[in-house]
Structure formats: C-alpha cells, structure tokens
Amino acid sequence: MSHYAKRIVITGIGLTAPNGNSLPEYRKNLLAGKAGIQKFQTRYMDEVLAGVCNFDVNKYQTKKETRRGTRAGSISIYCAHEAIKNARIESSKVDKSKIGIYLGITEHGNVETENEIHNIKQFDYDVKFWTHHHNPRTVANNPAGEVSLNMGISGPHYTIGAACAAGNCGIIQGAQMLLLNEVDLALVGGISESIHTFGIFASFKSQGALAFHENPHKACRPFDQKRNGIVVSEGGCIYTLERLEDALKRKAYIYGEVVSHAINSDAVDFVIPFGERQAECMELALFRGGISPEQIDILSSHATATPVGDIQEAKAIKKVFGKSSKTYVNNTKSFIGHTMGAAGALELAGNLPSFEDGLVHPTINLDNLDPECDIPLLVIKTPEKIKQVDYILNNSFGMLGINSVVIVKRYKK
After folding, report:
1. Model confidence over 151-196: pLDDT tens digits?
2. For the chain, what percentages of helix, strand and coil (3-state, to nearest 5) are there?
C-alpha cells in the first residue's frame, strides 16, 4: 500500500531525447538498440561527444521568443505542450491558476553567461554590449517560468536544483503538491541544456570523467570494463500528473501510478558517490510504499559509465535486490548519454511502456562486464520479455551526494 493519501497518476508524457522526440519514437529506438550520440563542436575544446536533441523549436514558439529566451526554456516549452497534448487536456477547459510547474535542473545560466562573456570579448569587455535579457535568462526559475509565460499558466512555477537527481525530484515535488491540494494538475519532470556550455565538458575532462570513443554511438558504456566517463547530453521530459479521481472523470489514459519515493544525501564527498546511502534511499522508498524488493520488476539504473560511480551503484543494487529472482536491471544512458537534470524523468519514461508490452529494454555497449558490476538480471544488448511488469523503480543520483528514487506501479482500478 502506497504511503500517499491519494492516488497520483501519470496521464501525459512530452519529451525530447537525443534518439527521439516522442515516447513512441524514443521507445522504439530503445528496443532497437539505437543510440543518439554524435560528434559535437564546443567552444575552446574543438570536438567532443554529446547527445543532441533535434526537435522543432518553433512548433510552440516564435523565432522572436526563442531569441529572447533560452535553450532550456525551449526544451521545457516543447515538452510541456507535448505532455498536455498527449494527456488530451483541453486548455480552454482547465483552470490555469490550479496548474503547477515543477521542473528539475542540474544547473542554469551557465550557457547564457558564457555566451555574453564571449560576445563582449570582441568589444574589449565593454559591458554596454552586455544584453539586458541576461537576468531573466539566468534566474534559476527560468525554464519553468518560460513555460508559464508561453502557456499562460498562472499557478505556481519553480525549478528544483537537485543535480542529476533533479528529474526524479521534479516528479516528487509535483506529487506532493497534488497531495496537498495546492494544484489540480502538475507539469513535472526535468530538463537540460548542458551541452551548450563548454564548461561542463572542460570540468569533466579535468576530472578525468569525460567519455571518448572512435564511434560516438559506443561512447557511453555503463558497467563495461572499458567505460571511461560521461557523455554529456541535452534533453527534457515532462509529465502531467493528476489525482486519480480527476483523471477518471475525464477518462484519461493512465501510464502508471506514482506510489512511493525517497530522497537522501550521502554527506560524504562533492563528486564521489556512496553506495551505502544509495541503498538506503532505495530501501526507504520500498519501505514507504510497503513494497518488497521481489515486487520490483524493472530497476532503471542511474549508472553514468564512470569507473567509481558504476561500482558504487552496483554494490547498492546488489545489497537491496541481491536475493530477488525477478528484478531486471537496465540502463538508458548507454543510448542517450547523461541528460543531467532530465535524466531521471527521461529514463523513467523509457521504461513506462513495459507495463503494456512486458519488454525490458537493454543496456547497450556492454561488451565486457566489469566483475564488480555483475548485477543479477542485468539486461544486456537485447530486450528481455517478461510475463508482467507491475512495479518500476527509478534511480537518479547527483553531485554533492543527492540521491532520489521514484517507484511507479501498473495502474489497476
């Protein structure tokens, strides 16, 4: 039994990923083993590998609006509109003061600041050439705020800064606001524009954590012996969350029911993960939901393809699920790289269709399993067909030791 006082369900999904701009396209490519990593030019570093989204920026924005706003805002606006459309919600029939927007981000403002500094450099750093749009572009609430402005939503909006756990945290925040009756509909999830700041690539490279490979599609290699770091990607995924009674009233399609969550902190290191706290976070989510490890059918791993990080998570998973004979484990970053603030939301989305088709998408690029990452029932290279999927557990962890877990259940009346 969920610890939620009311039932919270997912009724719409809008996304853009390096290998798909809708859930059907994205899911099809995950099952087909099709990655979305490419070579990418970034300032001062020449060529890097990155996950780049190719969605129609002007589908819901004018060119003037995109020039004034941000890439993160454009990703958010696209995903929010697609989520509302997918949920078959008629905007004219919804009280927009009762819609909340809760979007997770890793960081925001770096892109715009780097661009402005680069721009005024050619004018000998004369700040009169600094844009007056800088402040609204760089405030932390910008992505959610751009959605509010674009869609005329007058309910609460804010972003959740939770490093790479942010996508899950956006979902959790929206569920909590629905439970508190603060809103009647929540647009939740996570977004990332990270590839447009050279600083993130430079920092990971200095750390020895930036992936490289002759073949871009094989660059992200979670749990593999030859993994050598993170592939930085952009992306976004926004869900519509509703209370079950409201979804039933309008006969909405239900993708799944959010039944439990947990957030905790390692309190150990700036960047090195701590498996013991990750395990505690999974255990807390299971406990709160009254769910046993054996009831989890799919565990979506966070693994980023860093040498230490993958081992820590593998240890945590084995500690919690080592005795489960039915918990299959997969990884989505092997396809799309690390979409940072969007990771948790995008990775969950890729698994939700399993409730319908019973397929567990694989982890790709795993040619030589690291013995220290030998997780039971790790799905490798090809999809696994199982009898029925009732529960999905989604791991999402981030720098400064923030851990998040969301559990979604197959909807049953």
Report:
1. 999 999 999 999 999 999 999 999 999 999 999 999 999 999 999 9
2. 40, 25, 35
- Tell which CATH architecture fits domain 261-409: 3-Layer(aba) Sandwich (3.40)
For domain 8-249, the CATH class is alpha beta
- Amino acid letter, residue 316: A
* Residue given tokens 């450099």 in the structure block: 121
In 3D space, the residue among 367, 279, 379 whose CA is nearest the CA of residue 329 turns out to be: 379
Q: Which residues pair with 235 in a beta bridge?
A: 192
Structural contact between residues 260 and 404, judged by C-beta atoms closer than 8 angstroms: no
Are both 8-249 and 261-409 of the same fold? yes
Domain boundary assignment for the chain: 8-249, 261-409
Residue 231 DSSP code: P
The torsion region of residue 235 among left (phi > 0), alpha (psi -120 to 50) and beta comes to left
CB 226 within 8 A of CB 369: no
Residues recorded for the chain: 413
Say how far apart CA 288 and CA 297 lie, in whole Å: 18
Does the pLDDT of residue 28 top 80, yes or no? yes
Residues 260-282: tens digit of each pLDDT: 999 999 999 999 999 999 999 99
Contact 171, 239 (CB under 8 A): yes
Given phi > 0 = left and psi -120 to 50 = alpha, else beta, which region is 108?
A: beta
Beta strands in 145-233 (DSSP E): 157-161, 185-192, 232-233
Asked if the model's pLDDT at residue 217 lies above 70, the reply is yes
Q: Which two tokens stand for residue 216?
A: 């871009």
- Helices 142-151 & 71-86, crossing angle to 10 degrees? 50
* pLDDT per residue as tens digits for the range 298-339: 999 999 999 999 999 999 999 999 999 999 999 999 999 999
Rounded CA-CA distance 282/293 in Å is: 9
Contact 312, 275 (CB under 8 A): yes
**What is the model's pLDDT at position 1?**
56
CB neighbours (10 Å) of residue 340?
Answer: 29
Helix or strand (DSSP H, E) at 111: helix 110-121
